[in-house]
């Protein structure tokens, strides 16, 4: 098992107003985001390409919203900001796509520019 790109413990994970755990864990490893309870039981997981994470403008630092498999979770990262989580997801997505920092459209445009013109 590979070293995790991001790991946060003591995370409060809630689904709307229902608290699922007050001391959970968020891990980004092997191209997947995993939400765990304080006992290590998996709440939800998905490939990083299918996960959306945002930091609401109205929330305090260290809070994030994550959409995993179509379900929104409110995350309160204890003692950390959500910037580390967002950066880890971007890095994992870049590694999964094959080229660091380039989207699929950017790759196609670069290939077109590099190809010799016929005629």
From TrEMBL:
<feature type="region of interest" description="Disordered">
    <location>
        <begin position="96"/>
        <end position="119"/>
    </location>
</feature>
<feature type="compositionally biased region" description="Low complexity">
    <location>
        <begin position="96"/>
        <end position="108"/>
    </location>
</feature>
<feature type="compositionally biased region" description="Basic residues">
    <location>
        <begin position="109"/>
        <end position="119"/>
    </location>
</feature>
<protein>
    <recommendedName>
        <fullName>PH domain-containing protein</fullName>
    </recommendedName>
</protein>
